[in-house]
Design brief:
The protein has about 210 residues and is an alpha+beta fold. Among the domains are: about 50 residues, no CATH class; about 45 residues; about 50 residues. Helix 2 packs across helix 3 and helix 4 packs across helix 5. It is elongated.
Length: about 210
Amino acid sequence: MTLRWHGGLISEIPIPLPRSRPATVRTDEDTVELIRRLAVHYPDAIIAGVLNRQQRTTVTGLAFTVNRVSSLRNHWGIARFVPPIEPVAGEPLTIREAAEVLGLAPSTLHRHLNDGLIAGEQVTPGAPWRIVVTDALRARLAGDAPAGYVPMVDAMRILGVSRQTVLQRVKRGELDAIHVSQGKRKGLRIKLPNAMPDLFDDPKSAGG
């Protein structure tokens, strides 16, 4: 600072200036909000796995770990997941819980989810699947095959299409399917339409 006195003298006085404060480094709001939603359903270990599968990183570019997720939760006041003592009626269950309730192997439920034969939900892509066990779902996972349902190989032969085509028709609601969990031939059973079209008819000749 230059100070000019009334008598004409000039004084140079050095004054230290305050240093500019560096910008605060913070985790992006989208990741914090995702952790907030995931923490309602999952422990920190699963949350870390979901964040890493989505290729998210910490603010310093590191992969997420249990400790880093826990630190973020505590910083933002996000409560830790506490599993209920007993599943709440009507609430989605994990694959393992749903498999236990339905008396199936978890791998069977995973396969039906991938095929689109049963419905599930995910909080976010990469999160574990969750299933609501309803009466309709129990009906689709029957113990015995009702009358009118045939094994997948027979449905493919009768309809003259591939397994993938049969599954696509089931997902579109054009065919009904159930999973049989008892007997020697466990697996999917397909209900064929009452009126089977003649696969060898010429559509051009149908009108006359």
